[in-house]
Amino acid sequence: xxxxxxxxxxxxxxxxxxxxxxxxxxxxxxxxxxxxxxxxxxxxxxxxxxxxxxxxxxxxxxxxxxxxxxxxxxxxxxxxxxxxxxxxxxxxxxxxxxxxxxxxxxxxxxxxxxxxxxxxxxxxxxxxxxxxxxxxxxxxxxxxxxxxxxxxxxxxxxxxxxxxxxxxxxxxxxxxxxxxxxxxxx
Length: 186
Description:
This protein has a single domain (4-185), classed as Bacterial phosphonate metabolism protein PhnH (Rossmann fold, 3-Layer(aba) Sandwich). 28% of the residues lie in helices and 30% in strands. It contains five helices and twelve strands. The chain has helices at 4-20, 40-49, 61-71, 95-98, 146-155, and strands spanning 26-27, 55-57, 74-75, 84-88, 102-104, 107-111, 113-118, 121-130, 138-142, 164-169, 173-177, 182-185. A seven-stranded mixed β-sheet has the order 1-11-10-7-4-2-3. Helix 1 (4-20) crosses helix 2 and helix 2 crosses helix 3. The chain is globular and about 40 Å long. It starts with a helix and ends with a strand.
């Protein structure tokens, strides 16, 4: 019998693997009762990372209720001060990249992570990743539009400041692009 603790432990291992190997796709096979329009991978990643000290922003009321109940995390009405921003691809705005926590030199970890549930990981536009955790380069295909990576690259140009991206899709794939990773549009 799998409990929620066993489930989140497995997802945590997959998150660590995806974070340490940017561009590597993890398939989240764990099951969860999901009453939202988000993928199981998105909900499980949030359930694994959130606790009662984490603040998050989402415009989706069902997801907000689920995350508050399942994790005890604090729903924030102001995305610019939130630790995590949870949204769907079609709900993206430039402000979610530019007007968020980017850290400060003395505490670069005080930055936001955008958790974006996109249409597809493995289909769409091709991006080339390079940086720590990648031998030379890695090419990935995502349905996420080029303009969002342009905003992300602008925010991440002054390392160690920036934001991290975590993307999931309807097939429960998960990919992480840390602020240390260089992203080129091909």
